[in-house]
Amino acid sequence: MRYLKLGSGNIDRFLERISNYGELYAPQKISEKFYDYRKVDDIEKVEFNYNRTITPAKKYFIPPKQEMFEFDIEEGEYEETLGEVKPFVLFGLHACSIVALRILDGVYLNEYPDKYYAARREAGIIIGISCLPDEYCFCNLRRTDFVDVGFDLFLHELPDGYLIRVGSERGHRIVDENMDIFENVDNEDIENFKKFEKKRHEMFRYEGSFDNLRYMLELTENSPLWEEESEKCLGCGNCTMTCPTCRCYDVQDLPDIDGKHGKRIRFWDSCQFRSHGLVAGGHNFRETKKDRFINRYVCKNAYFYPLGTSYCVGCGNCTYFCPAGIDFLKNLMKIRDVIGAVHGE
Amino acid sequence: MKIKKEIKVDHLARIEGKAGIDVEIKDDSIDARMVVTEGPRFFEVITKNKRYEDAVAIFPRICSFCCTPHKLTPIEAVEDALDIQPSEQTKKLRELLYLGNMVESHALHLYLLVVPDYLGYSDAFEVARRGGGGMVKDGIFLKDVGAEIQTVIGSRSIHPENAIVGGFGKVPPKEKIEKIEKMAGEGLQKAVDAVEFFAEYEYPSYVNGSRRHLSIKPYEGYGVYGNEIISSDGHSFKIEDYKEHLNEEVASYSFAKRGKFMGEPYTVGAISRLVNNSALITGKAKELIEKYREFVNPENCFANNFAQAIEMVYFLERIKELASELHDIKDESIAKPERNSGDGYAVTEAPRGMLIYYMGIEDGIVKNVDVITPTAMFLPMMEVDISSMAKGLWEDGYQDREFIGKKIEMVARSYDPCISCSVHVTRL
Amino acid sequence: MKIGIHGLTSCYGCQLSMAVVKRILDISEKFDIKYFYMLSSAGKIEHVDVAFVEGSVSTEEDEKELKMIRENADVLVAIGSCAIHGGVQGILFNENVEYEEAFRTVYGNRDMEYEGRIAQPIDKFVKVDYRLPGCPPEEEEIMYYLATFAIGSWPEEKDYPVCAECRRAGNPCILIEKGEPCLGPVTVAGCDARCIKYNIPCIGCRGPVPDVSWFDSLAMTFKEKGMDREYVKKRMAIFASRYEGLNEMIDKIYGD
Amino acid sequence: MESDNVYGLYKCRILRVYSLTEEEKLFLLRFEDSDIAESWSFIPGQFVQVALPGVGEIPISICSSPMRKGFFELCIKKVGKVTDMIHKLQPGDFVGIRGPYGNGFPMHEFENSDILLIAAGIGMVPLRSVFMYAVDNRWKFGNITVINSARYGNKLLFRKELEAMRDIAEAENIKIIQTVTRDPEWEGRVGRAQEHIGDANTDPENSYVAVCGPPTAYRSIFNKLIEAGYDPRKIYVTLERRMKCGVGKCGHCIAGSSTFLKYICIDGPVFGYYDIISTPGLI
Ligand SMILES: Cc1cc2nc3c(=O)[nH]c(=O)nc-3n(C[C@H](O)[C@H](O)[C@H](O)COP(=O)(O)OP(=O)(O)OC[C@H]3O[C@@H](n4cnc5c(N)ncnc54)[C@H](O)[C@@H]3O)c2cc1C
Ligand code: SF4
Ligand code: SF4
Ligand code: SF4
Predict the structure, then answer these.
(1) Does domain C2-150 have CATH number 3.40.50.700?
(2) Between chains, do B63 and C135 touch, taking CB under 8 Å as contact?
(3) Complex confidence, ipTM
(4) Binning pLDDT at 50, 70 and 90, where does residue B387 land?
(5) pLDDT tens digit string along B282-335?
(6) Are C153 and D84 a contacting pair at CB < 8 A?
(7) CB B255 within 8 A of CB C108
(8) Domain D239-283 coded CATH 3.90.1140.10
(9) What DSSP assignment string belongs to B188-217?
């Protein structure tokens, strides 16, 4: 991998330069406590130290609401409405967010590639940035705390700037075209990088591996925990909407009142909603709130084989953004303990 | 032999709400009554014991046409009760919001509800089909100007939620304010055209008769806020004393209350504002008043339509002015209460006339409410005019009940009555 | 296609919002509007393909009219919170105020020729085929409903809460951040989380999510944030007074 | 079929419409584009997405034999928004089609074995494709039994078609069993499908079994089959879920558990017996 250094003095220039490659989006403070990716019209507002955004980066690749086709009802014709996707630069993704996008790639670019997603993925330049975990983060347990691929450039915080890893051909090109703002990495930088990584690792709340969780989950289907926790659940879908890897969508046809035209749209859906598992005739595969509650735990902890990680990347969003204060990680920890207790008896 | 003759309009179309008119013609007298069949909704009971923030969110549901006045007036009352001092910017935004409702309401009433009468059609769709499309579109444009203002400032045009006690949840961005300014400018000529349109119709003389006009004395210019009520014959009193001056009665045939001032029917609304305060009007509207002086006739209810058209012109100019004063708009925090309990009074000029709110608050909880709406105020006067119209036509030998029915409907419509408002409820 | 637009006891906001959609003239051309008293004096109740009914049943007259509308309509759509849930005037029901009592408080000791009632949603009297929620309904949804009928189909109703739209819209959550009593989690979506966009906590004007409004769970959250029972109860009941088991759900959390 | 948009639809013309029962209609379709019509192929058990502009898009199993080139059939039950509208269509009208999707039944594995088909209710739809395929390639398979069941006689799908085949079927070692569960008027066999397994002409030792019906019936059918000596490794079922895309994107059809999380649309809808019993949530 190619390593470079960006000195503190050049950070603003770096942001300006990358915005030449496309519309720039980056985390910004949107309210007292929350951050979100927004279009950058003032580089002063770009946030380098944030923990999580209220909408994950998936929104740039699968928009919350998206038009797919326009149709002509009388002729039975459909016309794709993807149009041209202009290049854009997504700055400031953390490692877990980048892994999350790779998981989405697995879904959207499989044997039936989704053109709408592919076009946006192609157009989006990804620039990652290092972070320090808070009490909600557990990417270390998910093995998503570090990424080797899936970004064009990745910035690691140093006391006097950033150490940059170049992760793609596009990344090399950007670096080559702007060599005047980069320096070479020296020994002191490497020492600082190590220190940062050490500090970061010491900050995680838990250590160890989480993989056996999948079996534990299957074995605790009848644990009283599900009853208790799903009682609190509002069924509001905040957990799935803020999850960087949840991507269920719903499709709807919107005819025009002229009765002749219309459009087909798709928009974020959630397995926490009743109709998600409902089929014609009224049978529901996830009838109760508890069924739907458990479903998310099951789905997120299943394995995504191509990457050797689970669908959950351990970002902590679903806990942080749950209005009812339900703690995903804590519940998973409890599930492991429940099993322990069963064996202990 | 005495034959009882009756003219009935069971369901009065093209007004807000549900009401009918019964006119009974006896040999020696004539008796008209507006029958409000809409069910009671008891707003003063349902807002009681709620937190004031929640109560002010409920009041607008009294009526969709004047939801904004029913939001801003109780907000004023709460602020009076709890000694909350909103910022200058908030006051300007509120006035703008209020005037947005005014323009929307007047445009709807004039173009979609009244114009079909003048042209002899049953609705604006027919007007559009028969070549009046341009006029209907003008009306819709003006209505949209008003709706846009309420959307930008209030979050939506019906039941705006962004206006709250102490200020606004979110201050609208400068670009949107500029858009309002531009739209108001574009609407101005259309409003002038409306004035010219109404100036082509003479008022039916059957409904001529002297009457007392009540309105507020605006704090500033020809504004909608004030705390003093004045009458066309020189009376005045402070809002805190309204109960001593304005009484309300209940009639057995109506869920609407009926106002009296000094024991007599009176009227409120656009014409009353013009009669009492036209000296405060400026600009293009002032020119039009001078040009069409005779149409500002204090003795004929049809003057209200004309007065609304004049007001549209004036308020659009005022909107432009207010918007231009808001170019340096900025985010602000919401003004906080100085105390937790108190009595608050507010009166504003809603599109249809004065709107009075009294609220008694204890520890943030609403304990007492009284609301007097313009429609409740002018109902008795309206019945007088309906009787006069029916009587006049009858005596002139018109016998076709449907024809008379149409004419008396026009009388009612000229008041722009708002039945939901009148039925909401008020404490005796 | 013949349609009728009717109002019972309400603020007339739903009819008004139908009257002021941007393409009202297109609608008047595409549909044969048989009844729309707010806008037209032409028309009497006659057979229509779809009747839209706004407002709650609050008088004998309302009930009679509603039944007549139903008899003459192939499809009946309840529009707005009053028709669907009884509206804000339904609060009396939730608070167990008798009609007589409310009436006396307001009108004094007078007899009326007409009898009023505590407001009720229209499905207490007639079969309702579809529900178009809102206080008032959103233009986009009005157009969607009309269009699906126009092509011989019917609308899909939303069954999820405002929160979903709040996230899609990119708002910060004010319930988490400021602990404000947002009713978004129990209120049916469709407004694109308008109020939250304006930093105003949702008061639930669109009414509860059909069958899956977890007032108990939300009460638990509110309680933890220090809100008292009376306040929570009153706020939740503004637009949800007729939601089955509402009071019980709240009592369950706060204890008896 | 070539399109750079997986959700792109191809126009199909409805050639014939038959009413099978009060609620089910059979549609004969052909792609407008004759190149597609001729080259299009599928495996029994696969499904297509059927779209009506303005109304929506739904998954429907193909119920004709893949051997019949140029045309295909769908049997659609009227249950809601889209299916209601489809039932209003007439010959000459168009629908949008994309697919085929799903894995389908492993027909090549079935070769040289007996085949037992067990259908309950609408489950006969995908199994008809298996059946027709087997009949069209009669020499490749051993004995065949079809057990078609429904609540009432007039709800038995393809009942007349199957009855009409009876004589020739006998000669070809094909056994057709039609049974109903709730119909007092019905004069033929009664009882649930699984109660007639013993009457099949298939050799449990050398049979493949395909089952389709309501998920609630599966366990009891499995038990009966295993009791009768059928090899669990050779039992297949097809599953249903809500679906919006058909190609593993929209997430609605994800089912299973943490160790076996599957998309019904691309990993299924056909699953083997062991998948089913080792995966809570699949049925
Ligand atoms: C793999 C597969 C094969 C199928 N094969 C057939 C068949 O051959 N014949 C047949 O009659 N039916 C079949 N179905 C069921 C059929 O898809 C549903 O009956 C149909 O989707 C109902 O749509 P609707 O709009 O009429 O009903 P509504 O209840 O109005 O449904 C509204 C929406 O919900 C979704 N939906 C509802 N139920 C289902 C469901 N069961 N599956 C998927 N989406 C659903 C649809 O997207 C639909 O747009 C199959 C389902 C699957 C999954
Ligand atoms: S399940 Fe929760 S912690 Fe895991 S990736 Fe999704 S939001 Fe993050
Ligand atoms: S602000 Fe309200 S509507 Fe939005 S997510 Fe939070 S609780 Fe839900
Ligand atoms: S956010 Fe709540 S109160 Fe606001 S419009 Fe939506 S449903 Fe109504």
Answers:
(1) yes
(2) no
(3) 0.92
(4) confident
(5) 999 999 999 999 899 999 999 999 999 999 999 999 999 999 999 999 999 999
(6) yes
(7) no
(8) no
(9) HHHHHHHHHHHTTSPPPGGG-----BEEEE
